[in-house]
Amino acid sequence: MSSEPSPVPQSPVEQSAPRRWSTADLAGPTLIFVGSFLIAVTIALPTLLVGTFRTIPLSTDFTTVATAEKATILDRCSLATPAARTLDADLVRQQRVVAVQPSDEHRVTLQAGTSVQAETLRIGDRTVEPEDPRPGSDADADSSAACNDATVNAVKDRVTLDRETAEPQLSARGASEIQYDSNQAPVLVPDRRGFTYLLPFDTSLTDHEFFDVVTRTTVPLEYDGNTEVVGKDVARFRAEVPATDLARAAFGRPVGTDVVITRPASWFGIDGPRRDLTATLRHRSSWDLAVDARTGTIVDAKITVDEFYAFPDGTPGVPADFRLPHLQANFTYDETTQSEMSRLASDLATPITIWGRIVPIATGVLGVLALVVGGFLINPAWLPARFRRTDRESRETASHSD
């Protein structure tokens, strides 16, 4: 009989030797960890990071230009002539809005300077420059504010806003003050409410409130459907500012204008006995705003202004419908402003789109794939039969090679 060799006994050290983890063993847990991390990132990005992009930037700084052709203005030089005179004019309304101090992570203070300038004037059939001499201009030639200054009016507004809601935040050092005359102190507006220069991110398509700087009043800002500006879908809002007497107490005086005028009745064109009459400046306007609802940016605006002098009700010998125009104009953002404001809206929306939509979708898809693959690697029984055979054969081949 042939004797078979007895198996060589293994030493206790060889029997208890720990199995070393291979790269294949670590792949599954690593993918599950990576997948879990990516899913967490997918959830966190829209709720944590993107929220910081939905606030008024501390770097806010933009300029808008609106033009009005065939406007009507009162010739201030006619204050020194026997009769009031109005002129046809082409006007430019320029406004710069910039973030200033105090500003922090919760609030931002905006300073807006707005001016209306005359580009050309028409007297009869002649076109003249605003600075050209005309009847009455020699009366105040030495004045620092000559009547033939091109500036029709100007105003500086300063208001602190909540960076999320874009509403005035007038407590904790916040303030609202409006300066109508560079030679007079600003007028404080402690009860200011409503939007003026921008609206909040994700503006709701409902009615809001609008604050008018000239009259210092808050009026409804009504949603009026959608429209398109420079290829961008935007929401329309309308505000109507009723006729308001600008001579009311503590109002201040707009630059270059007289809120109260006292002149002979004949100067106003009113017949009757010789006497002096006093008229006050009234203002009414309408605002048609095109707003990018995602960012609250006003990308287009049509502003109708009607300012006129009128007498108190019941003034003897004065027609009830008497109006002396001071400024009548229809301002519209020019094409450059529409394009720049549309570009600003896109720049503000881009980070929200990238980090709030594109990146979360990518990380979500990659996270799910990593979890699925990691699960299959940890538990090969989940794999289809043909893949399990391949996996078993690869392990046997690896063991034989050892």
Automatic annotation (TrEMBL):
Residues 1-20, 123-149 are annotated as: Disordered. Pfam families: PorA. Residues 1-10 have a biased composition (Pro residues). Residues 123-137 have a biased composition (Basic and acidic residues). Keywords: Membrane, Transmembrane, Transmembrane helix. The keyword Aminoacyl-tRNA synthetase does not apply. The keyword Lipoprotein does not apply. The chain crosses the membrane at residues 26-50, 358-378. This is DUF3068 domain-containing protein. It comes from Gordonia westfalica.
